[in-house]
Amino acid sequence: MNTFYNTEISAPRGLFTEDIVATYLAKILANLIRSDLEKGWHHWTGTHWQLDEAAVTEHVRSACRELAKGGSEDTRKRLGRMSFINNVKRLLTTDPLLRAKSSQWDKDPLLIACPDGRTIDLRSGQWRLSKPEDMITKLVAVAPTEEEHCPTWKRFVGQVSKEDADFAAFLKRLAGYCLTGLTNEQAITFIYGPGGNGKSVFIRTLLGIMGDHAKAASMSTFTAKKNDAHPEDIANLVGIRLVTASETEEGQEWASARLKELSGGDAISTRHLYGHRFTYIPIFKLVFAGNHAPNLRTVDQAMRRRLIVLPFNYVPPALDPHLEQTLRDEWSGILRWIINGCLEWQKERLQVPTSLRAATDDYLSVQDAFAEWFEERCELATNDTYTGSRELFRSWQSFAEGRGERAGTFSSFAERMQRQVGKGPEQIKRLGRKGYRGVRLK
């Protein structure tokens, strides 16, 4: 008999009707199966609850077979028929002992379950045996070591932070915060820098270790576009603790309203493709990475409070093709490093270091500078007015250099100019040269 059966319940006697058998099985299988009318049947694996109707069917079949032992041949045949088993399972679907609401799963934001049958309480960093009543449906990829045994990872973090102890400590707290189901920091993190400097390695390592708790999404979900992505993108992130996106392109613009909505801690409305609309409260932290920082149309207080820019400027003398595999071998030690980072975060919060705050301020000042340039140097005019794009770009370059800002490329200027003027002035060609009708320099 399955070790998770409640063996203290006496088996029924007499006629085994579907209703009698269902009532009995609900009692003995209460720690093994759960019926969620929204998501489907779950079964307890010994480490976590898993969505798996086939496994539940097998549990019901096995329990019916066990119950029929010692009975008549007719009883054994009847309890072994799939029609009988399916009818019993149908009755179990609505049994109060087995019912679970979607809101009951993964309720504790400071618990993580490991594949070795242990559950870590992130309040203390200590472990205990996993148990069904925790209602956990997700696993991290590995179990942690007792100590932070991850020398390659620590050396890597030191390199990408350019041996800035405050920067490295922040990365540790950030990773620990991402492991939780809490969002009280309301932070949006963007890691930028040239290729081959560790951005992707850092993110992929966190994604791998966090297992079911983390997911990589498309950058298009979080950047502005003419035809907004279907909300199914967001519907797929229910219950996820870390969401990452990479591969930014020059000239992209953040979908600011969406980012603020997703990081605000309030319920959002979404739906799956062809599905009914539903609401949920996001618990994921947003961590982005790219070679180019997307633009902000407006820099308001909400974005200033949320955005954290992390410059990964380290360029290794030579790329190590085996680095990620070496780090993979250290995942258990890195998980302990992350757990300790969570403990540090609970004591200190994120506490963005001065160097990182300066990088964020520099980024935001550039975003503000473009709007300021347009206001100071340009004006809207009649439709018969034309100003060449290169002429406007030279004006912006002069303004930016005078402010000590980077002007960017001509192509990125064209993108930002188009967003700045909106649906007013029109970009046209005159004598083979691009320019704007309805705007002129002062």
UniProtKB/TrEMBL annotation:
InterPro entries: Helicase_put_C_phage/plasmid, Helicase_SF3_DNA-vir, NrS-1_pol-like_helicase, ORF904-like_C, P-loop_NTPase, Phage/plasmid_primase_P4_C. Residues 166-325 form the SF3 helicase domain. SMART domains: D5_N (SM00885). It comes from the Bacteria. Keywords: ATP-binding, Hydrolase, Nucleotide-binding. The keyword Acetylation does not apply. The keyword ATP-binding applies. One of its GO terms (molecular function) is ATP binding. It holds the Pfam family DUF5906. This is SF3 helicase domain-containing protein. It comes from Microvirga vignae.
